[in-house]
Amino acid sequence: MNNLRKIGLSALAGSLATFSVNAADFSVSGGASITFDDPNRGFSDRGNGFYMGDSLTFSASGETDNGVGVAVSYELDGTAAIDDMKITLSGDWGSMVFDGHGGSSAMGAVDDKTPNAYEEAWDIIDTNGSTAGGAPTVIGGGGSDGMWIYTTPSMGGATATVAYHNSGGSAAAESYMDFAVAISPEAVEGLTLGFAAADNAVGNSIDHDKNTMYATYAMGAFTIGAQISDLDDTRANSDQESTAYGVTYAVNDDFSIGYSYHELETEVTTDQDQESTGVSFSYTSGGMTLGGAMNEVQNMGGTAATDREGYEFTLSFAF
Q1: pLDDT the model gives residue 95
Q2: DSSP SS3 for 119
Q3: What is the pLDDT averaged over residues 296-301?
Q4: Contact by Cβ (8 Å): 60, 72
Q5: Rounded Cα–Cα distance for residues 122 and 283 (Å)
Q6: Would you say 12 and 74 are in contact if contact means Cβ atoms under 8 Å apart?
Q7: Backbone dihedral region of 12: left (phi > 0), alpha (psi from -120 to 50 degrees) or beta?
Q8: Please, how many CA atoms are within 13 Å of residue 8, restricted to the half-sphere of its CB?
Q9: Angle at 287 between CA 224 and CA 31, to 5 degrees
Q10: CA nearest 33: which of 16, 21, 50, 47?
């Protein structure tokens, strides 16, 4: 990434003034990328399929007089004047993030930890150009803008993360909260075990209880992983279960390939199991990275014979 140190960003400096941060560092990070994709191959007109990245992140960081680290970042992209943004406080006690927009909850950050070389098996495919109803179903985390996220320091290879969001809306009057625990045992190099759970209201008298657990293991050039997730819904015939696994192989220091699989099952007797598969790769040479994936989903959303496939390839440059 291109880091331009100590530039005069008055907006960022003003946001840190309340914390009296000393010797703050300012930076701008970004890159150049060209993507060629078709997330719904054969079912939509994507034009020529080429587009470029359009994101810049402005960041500032420093330390208060009492030793608390403070960092703030704002992303500018083509869809909004200011998009992703957050403030992070850190110290020996861990880190506390106030996520203004664009972050992941504790469970959302680990909804699929199975290895891949580019994207998950259920990703990329989008039949309607939005995130509502156009993509394969996944059991993931929740939350929204204005979320608090606390992460503990590592304790013998174990960390815990808690996320909280006070929704306060009429359709979901209760707050949202989830947590995640990850353990990398010092006695078993390359092994990571994790668990996450969430409890939230998604509407009046509609509650979701979610949990997921995963394991990944890196040995030599191979990394393998498996994950199971569960959703209990207070509405009849609305529970879901999913199973996923993935494997990646590092051909050399620059080139990796991967295969991943995701299956989701519902309570509805007429639904078919949704099955997603994907092959992916990533190649890096100097400051250039070429990566991509070809994914396929069968019975999307549980609907029989609703089979879709898509691909995405990105050439990016870091400087």
Answers
A1: 97
A2: coil
A3: 94
A4: yes
A5: 22
A6: yes
A7: alpha
A8: 0
A9: 100
A10: 50
The yes-or-no verdict on residue 15 having pLDDT over 70 is: no
Residue type, 139: I
pLDDT tens-digit profile of 28-42?
887 789 999 998 876
CB atoms within 10 A of CB 230: 15
Q: Give me 198's structure tokens.
A: 């969430």
173 to each of 33, 260, 297, how far by Cα in Å? 41, 37, 35
Q: How far apart are CA 4 and CA 39, in angstroms?
A: 35
Count CB-CB contacts under 10 A for residue 221.
11
Lookup: tokens for 153: 């320091």
Mean pLDDT of 93-110: 93
Q: Distance (Å, rounded) from C-alpha 223 to C-alpha 145? A: 34
Torsion of CA 11, 27, 159, 65, to 10 degrees: -60
Name the residue type at position 176.
Y
What is the end-to-end Cα distance of the chain in Å, rounded?
5
What's the DSSP call for residue 155? Answer: B
Report the distance separating Cα 298 and Cα 263, nearest Å: 10
Name beta bridge partners: 71: 61, 88
- Spatial contact of 87 and 100, defined as CB atoms under 8 Å apart: yes
**Whether 202 contacts 223, CB under 8 Å:** no
Query: Where does residue 23 rank: exposed (0-12), middle (13-18), buried (19+ CB within 10 A)?
Result: exposed
Among the residue ranges 43-47, 145-149, 155-159, the one predicted with the least confidence is 43-47
- Residue with tokens 């396929």, as numbered in its chain: 296
> Using the 8-state DSSP alphabet, how is residue 271 labeled?
P
Q: Which two tokens stand for residue 43?
A: 């079912």
Nearest 10 degrees: CA dihedral of 122, 243, 229, 190? Answer: -90
Measure Cα distances from 288 to 31, 55, 117, 139, 255 in Å. Answer: 10, 17, 16, 34, 12
